[in-house]
Fold these 3 entries.
Entry 1:
Amino acid sequence: MSDGEEILAGGCVLWRRSADGDGIELALVFRPKYGDWSHPKGKLKRGEDARDGAVREVLEETGMGCDLGPELPTVHYEVEGRPKEVRYWAAEATGGRFVPNSEVSRLLWLPPGAARDRLTQLRDKELVDVMVRLTCQN
């Protein structure tokens, strides 16, 4: 049983076409506070829609604008005894520039297999698989 209100968050599996035009690359962020590699995501502001929050978090954590694509599976887990729900979308990067900040110190662009291997949490790895299946269908 958890104590406290559910934490609502939004995030993206952010991608771009690889420079050689052969496939895609995914953006992973390193969060020093947690010592992990993850997809850009974060808590929603009061009254904020999950889609808007996902786009805002991508911009804040990666410096990239993005166009949202299909919604990916929603992820549920606990953080310090509180339930957390993160809604994710596949999102194509539309440009921008990464600047390290207090939340995210590094940004990597990796092919899907390498990104899957680098991600810390299994739940993030599973999102890569779903995103790749959806992207390859289009």
Entry 2:
Amino acid sequence: MNITKENINELNAIVTVKIEKSDYEVTVNDTLRDYRKKANMPGFRPGKVPAGLVKKMYGKAIVAEEVNKMLSQNLSKYLVEEKLNILGEPLPNEEKQASFDWDTTEDFEFVFDIAVAPEIEVKLDKRKKYPFYNIEVDEETIDKQIEAYTGRFGENVKVDESADKDTLRGDFVQLDAEGNELEEGIKAEQVIIAIDLMKDEEVKQAAIGKKAGDVMVFDPVKVYENKHEVGHLLNVSHEDAEKIEGDFKFTISEVLRFEKAELNEDLFKKAFGEDTEIKTEEEFRAKIKADLEDNFKLSSNYKFALDSRDILLDKIEMELPEEFLKRWIKATNEELTEEQIEQDFDNFMKDLRWQLIKDKLTKDNEIKVEDEDIKEGAKEMALSQFRQYGMSSVPDEYLNNYADQILQNEEERRRIVTKVQEDKIIEVIKENVNIDEKPISLEDFNKLLEK
């Protein structure tokens, strides 16, 4: 076997792989002997099928499999040993790659086009200012977070008389055209309906001022303007919901009003765990502020990463083999049209350039992602997911177990490795440039992200 490389220019090259009969012959013959031992053909005893017949039946397929295996393994090995930082994957050369007949060809020549990543230099210095936005936690933001906590841990309480924001619990019974209860009609017990969600203004006003024991008669389809929603309300199938028409009698058993949780130790424990040491509203506000600052820091770092990417992309010029890359995208995404590739090509090139910059920073700064880093990344992801459900304080045992579950998913593990590596790259940038800290309100920060 012989592999050679011909440079077309600094970014493109041709790699030729020659595989001769002597390279694969021994392996193919060994495989054919194994096939002969196992062959079971009418008219021949097991293991006694003529070698020529076995070769005629299986020889081409075995040669093709062995040659392709040798090609793949040795081409990959060559690219690694030659330290060729290629872009995409080798593609068959459209002009020089000859076709051949597997039945008659003994020596094979494969010709590939490859694209080589350009050599770039990434200089980070203190002369360049990189903006870093410190999001201010003001009293209004803390108040909104407290409002969210008191709402999340609030509850419905019974009241004597309904108001416009209350809910009613009661029993539905379907009526006939004369207003009598239908024996075979739809009945639903202990249904809860929200007054403010009623779309019929007349019925909504009639629902205000009601007490337990009061009766209302109305058409639920008219009130909610959606038969499937009414079907869900009455716990009937979609098919039966389509048939619903006419009035129902609704007998109220309870009037419920949602009351937010009070600012007391019970709420503090629900919000931050039974072990919390928070006793007062001031301590509660201080804890919320600290948590918001941590969360905002994540957002600030995210924005810093975006800005750093844009600064470095503008600063570092690099030439890329665009023609090859378009061919490679098409070859690996056959469902894409030429128009679609052209439409998104600029974004692809931007992502590729940023990846090359990150690779260079990783190499120059000897950035490594260790198992411990990956585990910490998984724990951060787990904690973030717990926080979405209002669980700010999670015992280490649960956090570790959940992180281990996340890492069992290979796709999630790859995502975490990528994020950990990018976080390390951003830290390197921070350490080597001039950070221009800018205080900013949450509202203005969100506007920046929208641009």
Entry 3:
Amino acid sequence: MIVWINGAFGAGKTSTARELAALLPDTTLYDPELIGDVLRRLLPGKRLAEVDDYQDLPSWRRLVVDAAAAVLAEVGGVLVVPMTLLRQEYRDEVFGALAARRIPVRHVLLAPAETILRERIAERREAGAPEGVDERVRQWSYDHIPAYRQALGWLTADAHVIDNGRLTAAETARRIAEAVRTDTAAVCDIVQTPEPTRETVAAGVLLFDDRDRVLLVDPTYKPGWEFPGGVVEAGEAPARAGVREVAEELDLTLDRVPGLLVVDWEPPRSPAYGGLRLLFDGGRLSEPQAARLRLPGPELRAWRFVTEEEAAQMLPPQRYERLRWALRARERGLPLYLEAGRPTP
């Protein structure tokens, strides 16, 4: 199990984590800042200059999960992780990857009032830091307060919130320990999709409204929007898998087997596996049907009808290319075969 202590820079995460590690049995303290330090030494300066924060590096997000899984496999017990995550898509990616490894996460947010937060930042000192480092750290913390303020909406809905403005680190740790013991800080409700161990076949279904906008869904377990659908199970017909996924994800029963639009071979990109990605035409939904769409489980956060231009801003590039060619196939009435999102000559 992981107890992930989130909050703004200066909220007291690290000091609280140290106290908590002494309270919970079989506990190991794991600070993902160490992964950032390693990447600063490993990656070329040119690559580091392209990002404002090491969390923007896909390698950081992958390594944080891989290292957490490795430590838990080595020592077991509880991993206490003090780490700020203010971008919801990064939280989705990290927590989703942990869930895929069957590692439950209890998400705790330390949320002192902003006035107290600013006071703590002003008093912050880095032990043994060279001259000038303290001021840079303080400025960094101040600069991220607006991002923290903006993230509070989803953070407070997602995490167990503790106002530690008037609490010591030890008192805060005792509250977290009690919340963990009593299940008040519940396991993060995120879908647990096992990581593939080989290439997979996945089926997506395109659904349209009366303005020919396409329906996209926002998964909680990975960044970026998606099409309704999922991995085809053993012995299952791909089109039937798409019908099943639409029913599970949107509480919508399709009255016919959808027609094929594209078959796209997705090459493997380490550490992920590729495979065949199929898109089917689920047809046009009437206004009453669209009004009845529901998100029955924790797998999806939202759904939305969008134009092709809007989809280009919401989908990862290769997924958008798959959609673009699927729409052309729908116009022509002929399915297309793609490789890496592009038709073969």
